[in-house]
């Protein structure tokens, strides 16, 4: 599969992992420990800087009893909307999780994934000021 075709799948899996992790009150450190990774290495998976292997995805899903088909193929926005209507996130001490917070994190993935995945710096467009 060409690298250009991989990014949508990687973004979708990253969003599903983020959603599942946050909704179930798990930290990135806990997820990293499941995979024998550092916190930073796991964080890069959720930011689309690093790809998750099939073995790693299976390991997380088995450990957390998550539906691998939903993570691999499900639309994270649909999952979030469905979950939001039937249950509330499992909050942890000091961690606030809500629908809007998760949507904001989804948006960050969308905004930054291309640059992170291809390891290019984000270029800000600078518009000339009026009168220039």
Explain the overall architecture.
- By secondary structure, the protein is an all-alpha fold.
- It has one domain.
- 64% of the residues lie in helices and 0% in strands.
- It contains 7 helices and no strands.
- It is globular.
- 17% of the residues are buried.
- The model has no long low-confidence stretch (mean pLDDT 87).
- The secondary structure category is mainly alpha
Shape descriptor: globular
Strand proportion, as a percent range, falls in under 5%
Multimeric state of these chains?
single chain
Number of E-type strands: 0
Total number of domains: 1
Mean pLDDT: 87
Regions with little confidence, pLDDT below 50 for 5+ residues: none
Count of helix runs: 7
* Global Rg: 16 Å
Cα distance spanning the termini: 47 Å
Order of helices and strands: HHHHHHH
């Amino acid at each position: 599969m060409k690298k250009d075709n991989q990014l949508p799948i990687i973004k979708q899996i990253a969003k599903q992992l983020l959603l599942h992790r946050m909704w179930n009150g798990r930290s990135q450190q806990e997820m990293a420990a499941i995979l024998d990774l550092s916190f930073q290495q796991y964080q890069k998976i959720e930011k689309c800087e690093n790809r998750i292997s099939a073995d790693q995805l299976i390991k997380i899903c088995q450990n957390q009893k998550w539906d691998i088909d939903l993570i691999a193929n499900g639309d994270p926005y649909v999952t979030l909307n469905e979950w939001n209507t039937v249950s509330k996130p499992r909050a942890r001490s000091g961690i606030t999780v809500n629908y809007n917070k998760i949507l904001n994190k989804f948006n960050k993935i969308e905004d930054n994934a291309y640059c992170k995945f291809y390891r290019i710096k984000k270029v800000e467009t600078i518009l000339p000021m009026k009168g220039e």
